[in-house]
TrEMBL record:
It comes from Candidatus Fimimorpha faecalis. InterPro entries: PTrfase/Anion_transptr, PTS_EIIA_type-2_dom, Sugar_PTS. Residues 11-149 form the PTS EIIA type-2 domain. Transmembrane segments: none annotated. This is Mannitol-specific phosphotransferase enzyme IIA component. Keywords: Kinase, Phosphoprotein, Phosphotransferase system, Sugar transport, Transferase, Transport. The phosphoenolpyruvate-dependent sugar phosphotransferase system (sugar PTS), a major carbohydrate active transport system, catalyzes the phosphorylation of incoming sugar substrates concomitantly with their translocation across the cell membrane. The enzyme II CmtAB PTS system is involved in D-mannitol transport. The lineage of its organism: Bacteria, Bacillati, Bacillota, Clostridia, Eubacteriales. GO terms for molecular function: kinase activity; protein-phosphocysteine-sugar phosphotransferase activity. One of its GO terms (biological process) is phosphoenolpyruvate-dependent sugar phosphotransferase system. Gene3D superfamilies: Mannitol-specific EII, Chain A. It comes from the Bacteria.
Length: 150
């Protein structure tokens, strides 16, 4: 018996990929955790998580306003199965190279999707107030805010 490979497209964000009330942890542990969410939901292969750590070594992914957007190096595109994001909320912040980060969004983007995703997140979260509001939101509210960032 042969099994047909599923061609169902994953949405950019799944509600189960949103983690609220995360406790402070080391930056690399945060990257591994958010990357593992992407692995577990089928967006990326496990090697992509290492590529996210590698990106951070060469270029910090915190963008101000308490946001970090970890993503893999360009050479890791082959490890991406589908474009997707994973969200971790740190109400009390977590240290990211001296910046207190409250919102971490792990990004995997096929083709040029990652550029559009990065840009749209930066626009939606352009003020500290927008970030604070998201940090205090429920999973459903976070989902509604971020589901259209593709």
């Amino acid at each position: 018996m042969f099994f047909k490979k599923s061609t169902k497209k994953l949405p950019l964000l799944l509600k189960e990929n949103i983690r609220t009330n995360c406790k402070r942890m080391q930056k690399n542990d945060v990257i591994r955790a958010v990357g593992q969410i992407l692995v577990d939901s089928g967006y990326v292969k496990p090697d992509y998580v290492d590529a996210m750590i590698e990106r951070e070594k060469t270029f910090a992914t915190n963008i101000g306003n308490g946001i970090a957007l970890p993503h893999g190096v360009e050479e890791a595109k082959k490890e991406i199965k589908a474009s997707g994001i994973a969200v971790m909320i740190f109400p009390d912040g977590t240290d990211w190279d001296g910046e207190d980060v409250k919102l971490v969004i792990g990004i995997a983007g096929t083709g040029d999707d990652h550029l559009a995703i990065l840009s749209n997140i930066a626009i939606k979260m352009s003020t500290p107030e927008a970030v604070d509001q998201l940090v205090e939101s429920s999973v459903d509210e976070i989902y509604d805010t971020l589901k259209g960032v593709e």
